[in-house]
Design brief:
alpha/beta
Length: 251
Amino acid sequence: MTSVQGTAVDIPTEDGVADAHLAHAGDGTPRPGVLLYQDAFGLRPHLRAMADRLAGAGYTVLVPNVFYRHGRAPVVELPEFIDPAARPEMWQRLRPVMESLTNDLAMRDAGAWLRWMEHSPLVADGPVALTGYCMGARLSLLTAGTYPDRVAAAAGFHGGRLATDAPDSPHLVADRITAELYFGHADDDPSLPPEQIERLERALTSAGVRHRCEVYEGAPHGFTQADTAAYHEEGAERHWTELLDLLKRTF
């Protein structure tokens, strides 16, 4: 395992400045870049720990606060252990923040994240990989289709609303994707019902995208997030295996 250093960085965007966490090799050598997209709860100690674990496997990992327009992270005060059922007011505050991040704004920001990584001396030359969680899985898919020349691989875990009937549904970018994709879906997830799983699979297959989509049996929505009530250890460890295998194939 590589010794890891975590650094707080600020990233200029077209709409302001975003705070972010950068996890990188302690010796300062450039490593292949991974852009990690947050879940709804945002940049917090657990996501920094996930980035550090990835960096320890030999990567430079950037975790931007995609809600930066609403302030520096955390944009909503979070308990150490997150149980939304016990704190419904947390969702009441988070929902409008999430809904304000339109696809257009998110992809404008994605350009800023990718440009910053391209110019960082800690990120090796060439395309990067993506991984995203919950809402971050949607951002991962959209980014792979919006910036195909900058993305070599993209993963998403317990993503929701990946293939809806909406005219801006993420699956509609499939025909522009050149990266290899992997999705680990939550089991019995109301935000990604079977018809959306099938629609996503059809779109990726018909577009000729190298991909694999799997449902993790018994793993609920949010299963990778160890600081939440949704954590599912078996699903989380399987996610690490699949993600690291994808990265090894990519770089």
